[in-house]
């Protein structure tokens, strides 16, 4: 039994179109979000509810989703990318919540799409419980296996149907109750119906909690969960002064049992009526109405459902509609005798335990009942109440055993048949699979080299698109060379270097989702609101890349590139070696160039100054081991890296004869002058005029040795 402190805080993310299509394909009448919410509210408090879809295409569901308090996220549908857009937005929001809201410990993904499997893995890495919800036939096995728990919408529908049936049976009164009710007023009947409704709600909630959490629950937990599922619930509306009175009434009807918990002083509840309507069913058949009433009254102490029929013909109707555990039949009845009726029972429901009840039995009747009706037991009228209850209980047990044995036999037969078929087909299947694998391996070998080339082209394309708002010219190649050199110095193997390569090339991918006015500013000048927007770029990039298996490790490196060794970074405030090594390398590489570009502070540092800043922050922002490798590598590749032989110059300081160390690019990405261009007086004058007209400073890099040559001339 679990107590109230086990309640969780849930965030629900619904890929609405996916699950709606699954419901349609399964031929269910409509998608009922209420069934899902009722089950989830048993698990804890739902604090976030978001549904993603092109809502113009699903207008008929908007009112229901609004009523369920979902935030509807509009994702316009396009043929090529509408679905991916919804997936990406949902992933970004889920990861953002994961990283920023520690109190949310459970994430619910309503979808059957395997593309969400990496998201599930990421959430579980961050110690979040993940519950999936989907339709059986349209849900990926990969997604199901990846979740901590998976709820099938199909099962929720079956349980809902069973609950309605259980409510009806739990309200059924005994013969004595019916007689008493016949003398009450209509007002009392209405009050009784309200009480029944209140008890049904409590029993349904208690059953759901017991199924979820154990064999018993605290009464306070039942009420708390009931209020979550039905916020307007009040026991007084159902005619009870207190919740305890309601529970006591349920116990008096034999629906629940309660006992006092000595430690807490509260009630502990165990439900006696299960939501899947598995109470044993007994049918009593007799043409004497008084006998039927007496049987029903005698058996009222047992937790069973009692059905009655006044003739064999009426009893036959129950054989078609209900699965019976025990039948009690009178032997001598008009139109159809007891032995004739029991013969029909043995034909249609052979596992049913059959009892004959009569005051006088002739030898021929006995033979007929035994030979044709398969009677299990005779009882005399008048009967002893205890004996009748004992015989019925024994009959229920025997009927259950017979059903179990039959199910086990059928299962064994089916498994044997399947095993025989599998053995017969095994050799042929192995041969065909081997041939198919050999063919596939040949095709794979031919395609692998093409795939590698395509992969490199795709990385270059995506990196170039990401760099469009803030062009880097050939700087990205220098970053890549430096990052890989640091990785090699630290002993990374070939595979890890490949992931580092992808991450370095794509580390600015998330900038596409951040306004250019923010990414163009030095980070030290960002306002608090701008900083929050900027920090989302790692989550954007991670969300786009992690669904691609080849880039999954790279996405992790990019997602943690702004974590700091001392735990003061973002988005997760990871500490020390809890940060991926690739991310620690990327942070040093990235900041080295950003110090020189003025992307961290407005001042643009020289290479030596940038190195000094990196070294000063070892063991704080950066890993000291990575910084040490960086210092070694920077010295050894001094001649290979043009940035170490260049300097940043303002237009007013330019001199004729200077040569550009980089392409001269405007803030809009237009190349004005190519790398290597020798500056003249006219060129310098044009650049100064351009700055004055645009009121924007140009970033100009010239080779260090050029001023010296110019002065010598």
From TrEMBL:
The modification 4-aspartylphosphate is found at residue 330. Residues 164-175 have a biased composition (Basic residues). The lineage of its organism: Eukaryota, Sar, Alveolata, Dinophyceae, Suessiales. Keywords: Coiled coil, Phosphoprotein. One of its GO terms (biological process) is phosphorelay signal transduction system. Residues 198-273 form the HTH OST-type domain. GO terms for molecular function: RNA nuclease activity. SMART domains: REC (SM00448). This is HupR1 protein.
């Amino acid at each position: 039994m679990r107590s109230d402190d086990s309640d969780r805080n849930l965030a629900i993310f619904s890929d609405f179109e996916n699950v709606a299509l699954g419901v349609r394909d399964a031929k269910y009448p409509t998608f009922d979000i209420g069934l899902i919410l009722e089950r989830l509210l048993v698990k804890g408090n739902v604090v976030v509810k978001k549904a993603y879809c092109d809502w113009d295409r699903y207008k008929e569901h908007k009112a229901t989703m609004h009523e369920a308090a979902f935030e509807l996220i509009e994702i316009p549908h396009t043929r090529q990318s509408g679905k991916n857009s919804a997936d990406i937005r949902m992933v970004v929001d889920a990861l953002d919540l994961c990283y920023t809201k520690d109190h949310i410990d459970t994430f619910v993904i309503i979808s059957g799409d395997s593309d969400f499997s990496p998201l599930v893995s990421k959430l579980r890495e961050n110690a979040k419980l993940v519950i999936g919800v989907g339709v059986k036939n349209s849900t990926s096995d990969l997604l199901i296996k990846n979740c901590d728990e998976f709820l099938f919408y199909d099962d929720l529908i079956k349980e809902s149907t069973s609950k309605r049936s259980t409510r009806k049976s739990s309200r059924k009164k005994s013969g004595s109750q019916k007689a008493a009710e016949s003398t009450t007023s209509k007002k009392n009947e209405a009050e009784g119906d309200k009480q029944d409704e209140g008890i049904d709600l409590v029993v349904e909630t208690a059953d759901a909690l017991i199924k979820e959490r154990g064999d018993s629950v605290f009464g306070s937990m039942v009420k708390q969960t009931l209020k979550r599922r039905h916020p307007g619930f009040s026991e007084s509306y159902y005619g009870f002064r207190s919740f305890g009175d309601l529970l006591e009434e349920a116990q008096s009807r034999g629906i629940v049992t309660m006992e006092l918990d000595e430690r807490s002083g509260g009630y502990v509840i165990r439900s006696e009526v299960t939501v899947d309507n598995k109470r044993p069913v007994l049918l009593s058949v007799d043409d004497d109405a008084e006998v039927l009433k007496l049987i029903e009254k005698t058996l009222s102490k047992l937790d069973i459902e009692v059905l009655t029929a006044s003739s064999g013909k009426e009893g036959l109707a129950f054989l078609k509609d209900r699965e019976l555990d025990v039948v009690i039949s009178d032997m001598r009845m008009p139109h159809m005798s007891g032995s004739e009726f029991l013969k029909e029972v043995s034909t249609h429901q052979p596992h049913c335990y059959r009892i004959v009840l009569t005051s006088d039995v002739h030898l021929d009747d006995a033979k007929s009942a035994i030979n044709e009706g398969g009677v299990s037991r005779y009882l005399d009228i008048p009967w002893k109440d205890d004996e009748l209850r004992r015989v019925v209980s024994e009959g229920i047990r025997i009927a259950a055993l017979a059903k179990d044995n039959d199910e086990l036999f059928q299962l064994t037969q089916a498994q044997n048949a399947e095993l025989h078929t599998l053995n017969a087909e095994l050799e042929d299947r192995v041969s065909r699979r081997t041939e198919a694998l050999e063919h596939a391996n040949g095709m794979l070998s031919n395609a692998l080299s093409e795939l590698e080339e395509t992969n490199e082209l795709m990385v270059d394309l995506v990196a170039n698109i990401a760099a469009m708002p803030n062009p880097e010219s050939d700087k990205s190649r220098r970053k890549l060379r430096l990052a890989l050199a640091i990785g090699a110095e630290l002993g990374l193997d070939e595979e890890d270097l490949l992931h580092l390569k992808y991450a370095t090339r794509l580390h600015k991918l998330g900038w596409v989702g951040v306004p250019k006015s923010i990414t163009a500013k030095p980070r030290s000048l960002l306002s608090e609101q701008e900083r929050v927007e900027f920090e989302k770029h790692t989550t954007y990039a991670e969300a786009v890349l992690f669904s691609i298996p080849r880039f999954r490790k790279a996405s992790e490196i990019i997602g943690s590139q702004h974590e700091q060794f001392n735990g003061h970074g973002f988005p997760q405030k990871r500490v020390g070696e809890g940060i991926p090594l690739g991310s620690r390398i990327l942070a040093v590489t990235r900041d080295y160039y950003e110090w020189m570009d003025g992307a961290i502070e407005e001042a643009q540092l020289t290479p030596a100054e940038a190195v000094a800043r990196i070294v000063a922050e070892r063991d704080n922002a950066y890993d000291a081991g990575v910084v040490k490798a960086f210092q070694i590598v920077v010295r050894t590749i001094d001649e290979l890296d043009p940035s170490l032989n260049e300097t940043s110059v303002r237009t007013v300081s330019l001199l004729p004869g200077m040569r550009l160390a980089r392409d001269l690019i405007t803030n809009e990405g237009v190349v004005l002058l190519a790398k290597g261009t020798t500056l003249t007086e006219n060129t310098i004058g044009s650049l100064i005029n351009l700055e004055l007209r645009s009121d924007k400073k140009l970033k100009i890099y010239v080779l260090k040795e050029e001023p010296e040559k110019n002065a010598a001339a």
